[in-house]
Amino acid sequence: MSNISKIASTFLAICVAPIAMAQDLSDEELLSRFLNQRDVFKSVEGADMGQTRSLTTRGLKLVTVDDATATSAKETTGVAVNSTPADQNKPLVIGVLEPELQVNLRISFGFDSAAIATSEKPKLTQMCNVMKSSDIKLFRVIGHTDSSGSDAYNERLSVLRAEEVARFLVDDCGMAPTRLETIGLGERFLFDANDPDAEENRRVEFQAIS
What we know:
Elements lengths: L2 H13 L11 H17 L10 E4 L2 E6 L4 E3 L19 E6 L5 E3 L15 H13 L5 E6 L6 H21 L8 E5 L18 E6 L2
Helix pairs in contact: 2-3
């Protein structure tokens, strides 16, 4: 396990308690979490990640991830969301939130697939409506997997699933693509570090970052 995985697993193992997933929250509770997320992300704006490998404040732990690629959601002809590589000259900074600040959605996909099951779309529609009605400028959609499969496979699958969720938000729900950023982190940040194969780890996380 890499150092970044150890940091993430230790942090989450300490903090994880029976925390409600997003589908169990009301619109008001979801919006409250998003606003709290935005507040903590604002509190660390301008942090120099070139001088420190991690920074923790107000329930948010910033860590750099060396082997992941962030993407931005941009509208293109025929395809609502297109992946654009992040600046390769800068470390990718990921915010690891304490569970009570997280917005995690368990979404069922086909086996070895990024296709969203029809039964899952009402969850995403609720999420989208809350996001659209807020004044939050940018949301990050993060794909996570469990630990089964290789690191490379899990990372690729998590990217595809995050992008598919973003496509749904744009195409089916009318979310402005400029308000979305997608990233796949594979198995790096397990929600249930005590059970790496638990279904809770196969999730899509939403962060209000500005």
